[in-house]
Design brief:
The protein has 13 helices and 21 strands. It has 455 residues and is α+β, with helices and mostly antiparallel strands. Helix 3 runs parallel beside helix 5.
Length: 455
């Protein structure tokens, strides 16, 4: 058995580079490939899709990635792919992937499905049993939004993924799991760590935190991003985790970007609350004892994580319907453009009011652009060209629909110099708000099923 396990992450969010997973798997010499598709807003998008189609609710792009990975699996049959692309429908995602694998002739592969994170089917029972699911930020009770609740998913940990790996799964599809847990699981499975091996789990959690956002640790959104080499070919990250839980962060040879102590440290503090108590479902980690040292070109060793038992609760990411919104834009080229733009916004708001709607939220922005006038015309205190952006939000769809109808008429009823209206009326969009809460972990029972791709 190797004394390290190489784990790469080829997706930092749904919408990331669609070719990155195949490039990383083919050229990274990795043992495990993780793919992170889920953010809080993603679950709401998936809920909208599932409302229209009961068979939807997962990241459909991932099914195409599985097809692209077919040749890689033929050459590297021991490669294990772990993805939370299952979203709200891991079973449906698995069925679609199995069909693609069967079509590619990859019979005999094993597909693992991890479920149990979705609380929606049990919410009424939980609430009846006295679980108030209070908002972690506002302390309001769930009753405030219960009738508008769209999703509620617990961030489960590495253990069910470890179980799927132990059953020989080549592809593991989950719903909502904690992002670092997709890295913790391969290390725990490879080295046989137990659930109370907190020091090692802490190190692997740090490794997972470093690569969970993809290229952010290899130069993406880096403070000195303008200095990184070949950003068009930026390399996706790899961690080499050892049996003690320490890791080396690197990337494939010949790729752009960079791995330095600076890029690693910036990612370490990304989305970090209390650095002495980073909470995950697998372990509580103290980041203050970490060291990050460059040990080679594009190689940074991260050591010294301190681990304690995990919390008795799982974090729950819930979302609820919070009305409707629309944003419309026009371009205004004229003397005193900002002043005139504000006046246009007042006109739109007044016309919506006369139609019978007082908008809950309304904003006007005049953003200096200078793209149409060359050379730009601007006095010391006056923009001669602005992008006029108006946004409205309201619980009533009809109110927002009326707002969308009042923007384009400014082309002839507003000031001289308005353009940029070719796209017509803006689209009305549903608004989903975030409800962070907790649930006792004893109430969550993840389920693991592994099936073989038949002929």
């Amino acid at each position: 058995m190797s004394d390290i396990v190489r784990i790469g992450n080829g997706q930092g969010f749904w919408g990331d580079d669609i070719d990155a997973p195949v490039r990383l798997a083919a050229g990274g010499r990795i043992d495990f490939l993780t793919l992170d598709y889920l953010a809080e807003v993603t679950m709401s998008i998936l809920a909208k899709q599932r409302a229209r189609d009961a068979d939807a609710g997962y990241a459909r792009d991932f099914v195409d990635v599985v097809t692209q990975l077919a040749d890689v699996w033929r050459e590297q049959p021991n490669l294990v792919v772990i993805a939370n692309a299952g979203g709200l429908n891991p079973q449906g995602c698995a069925y679609a992937c199995i069909e693609r694998l069967r079509s590619a002739g990859l019979t005999g592969m094993r597909v693992g499905v991890v479920t149990g994170d979705d609380l929606m089917p049990s919410m009424d029972r939980f609430i009846a049993d006295g679980h108030n699911f209070s908002n972690l930020e506002t302390f309001e009770l769930i009753d405030f939004v219960r009738d508008r609740l769209v999703t509620a998913n617990a961030y489960i940990g590495a253990e069910p993924i470890v179980e799927a790996i132990s059953q020989g799964a080549n592809l593991i599809i989950t719903g909502r799991v904690a992002d670092p847990s997709m890295t913790v699981a391969p290390a725990a499975a490879r080295f046989g760590w137990s659930a109370d091996d907190h020091q090692r789990l802490a190190g692997a959690t740090v490794a997972g935190h470093l690569i969970e956002c993809g290229t952010q640790v290899t130069g993406g959104i880096f403070t000195h991003w303008d200095e990184i080499p070949d950003p068009a070919n930026i390399g996706y990250p790899i961690v080499e985790v050892d049996d003690d839980g320490n890791c080396v962060v690197t990337k494939p040879d010949g790729t752009g970007g960079c791995v330095t102590s600076e890029t690693v440290k910036e990612q370490l503090v990304y989305e970090l609350g209390d650095p002495a108590a980073y909470l995950s479902p697998d372990v509580t980690v103290d980041f203050t004892t970490l060291t990050a040292e460059e040990v080679g070109h594009d190689r940074v060793a991260v050591r010294g994580a301190t681990g304690r038992p995990p919390p008795d609760t799982y974090k729950v990411s819930a979302t609820y319907h919070d009305g409707y919104r629309a944003t419309g834009t026009l371009t205004l080229v004229a003397p005193r453009a900002s002043e005139l733009g504000i006046r246009c916004g007042e006109i739109v708001q007044e016309r919506v009011r006369r139609a019978g709607y007082h908008l809950e939220e309304f904003s006007v922005e005049c953003i200096e652009t200078f793209t149409l006038m060359s050379p730009p015309v601007k006095s010391e205190d006056d923009a001669g060209e602005v992008t006029l952006r108006m946004t409205a939000k309201d619980p009533r769809r009809a109110a927002i629909e009326r707002f969308t109808k009042e923007i384009v008429p400014l082309v002839t009823t507003g000031p001289q110099g308005i353009t940029g209206y070719a796209a017509g009326r803006p689209k009305v969009q549903e608004v989903f708000a975030y409800w962070p809460t907790l649930i006792e972990r004893r109430l969550i029972q993840p389920d693991v099923r592994v099936v073989e791709v038949g002929s």
